Amino acid sequence: MMRRMSLAGFDESEITLEGVTRTVYRRGEGPGVIVMHEIPGITPPVAAFARRVADAGFTAVMPCLFGTAGQPASPLYIAGQLARACVSREFDVLASRRASPITDWLRALCRAVHAELGGPGVGVIGMCLTGNFALTLMVDPVVMAPVLSQPSLPFPVTPARRAALHLSDDDLAVVKRRAAEGTTVLGLRFTGDPLCPGERFARLRAELGDGFEGIEIDSSRGNRHGIGPTAHSVVTRDLVDQEGHPTRAALDRVLGFFRERLSPG
Questions:
Q1: I need a surface site. Which of 47, 109, 163, 217 has the fewest CB within 10 A?
Q2: Does the residue 124 lie in any domain?
Q3: Cβ atoms of 70 and 44 closer than 8 Å
Q4: Which pTM does this prediction carry?
């Protein structure tokens, strides 16, 4: 069972959609941005990112999908939550051409947030296990600013899955149409990240053309910023919040992307 704990500075509520009730944390005012956390849950760096989104002029809406909100990451905690996700019926970690069932609930959340807050639409950002969910949510026209941060599903355990998008063929057709009509997809990854291989971004560029903006941060051996080979979480755990650092530039681009796509007028 998922435990709960309060997050400082966030309002907490229970939201029931599609017959499922989840705890949702919220902060800020303005157009809605759905923050889908990474493994192992809403860790302090994930909450800090959501605060940055709120401080930039948006309503950060962060559902708790697994783990204990506010608990710091540790190797044991990460392994435990990853194991739970792998056997959960809501997550299909190896599916190449279909999305995880939990995206139905997340799409309903996007619609509910937009109906309440209005504006041109909502933004969404997925991270790691939830990264590719942003593509599935983009099928709904209320999603105007989809961001994929180190999208890791399906797990790249075979050559075919390294380039797969965790998306059905029908949904991919909708995503391609929307991209052609002007809804850009933003993607972030470290070049040496084995969970988000380069083939995945190459596939996104091939499918979406100019509708995909990919930011790939050099994490190769001897890179000029000293980024380690295990770097994975671009805007959370591995963020270096210093001017001139590529992860800070990526964070600034994400916030700028939300402003471009969601600001009225």
A1: 163
A2: yes
A3: yes
A4: 0.95
Q: Residues 221-229: what's their mean pLDDT?
A: 96
**Could you read off the pLDDT of 99-142 as tens digits, one per residue?**
888 999 999 999 999 999 999 999 999 999 999 999 999 999 99
In a domain, 66, yes or no: yes
User: Between helices 246-262 and 44-55, what is the axis angle to 10°?
Assistant: 50
How far apart are the C-alpha atoms of 179 and 121, rounded to whole Å?
A: 15
From residue 162, alpha-carbon distances to 11, 45, 61, 194 in Å are: 38, 27, 30, 9
Q: Which helix (H) or strand (E) holds 252?
A: helix 246-262
CA distance readout (Å), 38 to 116, 180, 201, 235: 26, 29, 19, 11
Query: For residue 190, what is the domain's CATH number?
Result: 3.40.50.1820
User: What is the spatial distance between Cα 16 and Cα 114, in angstroms, rounded to a whole number?
Assistant: 16
Mean pLDDT of 51-79: 95
User: Rounded CA gap, 29 and 110, in Å?
Assistant: 16
3 in any annotated domain: no
**Max Cα distance, the chain (Å):** 51
Is the omega angle on the peptide bond into residue 154 within 30 degrees of 0, that is, cis? yes
Q: Could you read off the pLDDT of 177-187 as tens digits, one per residue?
A: 999 999 999 99
- For 211, phi and psi rounded to 5 degrees? -80, 0
Please tell me the total count of domains within the chain: 1
Decide if 124 contacts 134 (C-beta within 8 A).
yes
**pLDDT tens column, 45-61:** 999 999 999 999 999 99
Residue 87 structure tokens: 């056997």
Let me know: does 125 contact 137? Beta carbons within 8 Å: no
Residue 17 included in any domain = yes
